[in-house]
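Box 3.1 A note on notation
Throughout this textbook, protein chains are presented in two layers. The first layer is the amino acid sequence; the second is a token string describing backbone geometry. Keep the layers aligned when reading.
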Amino acid sequence: MKIQMRAWLGGPNPTWPRPDEPLWSPSTPQFSPLISAKRHAPFLMALLVCGLIEFARLGTVRAEPTEPSTPETVIRQAVLANERRDLEGMAQLFLKDADVESFGIAGLKFVGWNDLEQVLRTEFQSVSQLQIEIKDLKVWRRQDVAWFAMELDYIRVLSHDSGETRMKLELRETGVLEKRDGRWLIHSWHESTRQLPSWGFAGTTIAGSEAHASRK
């Protein structure tokens, strides 16, 4: 951008610095930054205005939202959206194929996104808060398919007149993701609990038990 500064300021100006004249010189005996700044104020103002004009011409830099770039990012964002009870946010991270089958605890089976959406909506409306902590997460990837194994603590907080009740579920999740149209999305998953049933298995001993509630 070339601007004739003298003409733009209204003609010659006795305070305008010469091409070979610095704005100020600390070696000058009468050097004063304040006096020098006042002397060259029109020149400095012209530079400022030119800078603002150029900035307006180029436009403001905006931070555009980015898509999750890795399978692990998608999984962690899905867990975070679940904790925030953000159904719309979760919907953006799952495939919507009608024949996809997934499984939850308590014998639940989900066919397609609509089944899962209905259960999530009911869950989000029935609790006052969710707290989800990922304890362990491993992800593997081969070309456009990825799969994961995860352990997490899922805490349901229920509010009532006398206070609140916290129900903790220690869960395991396994699942598959697919990269489709450049985006990683959750295809299907399977959920189970990390606790042994109260009656135990052959060769095991239950040292104690803790009350847990069904997630769904």
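The first strand starts at residue 101 and ends at 103. The CA atoms of residues 67 and 183 lie 7 Å apart.
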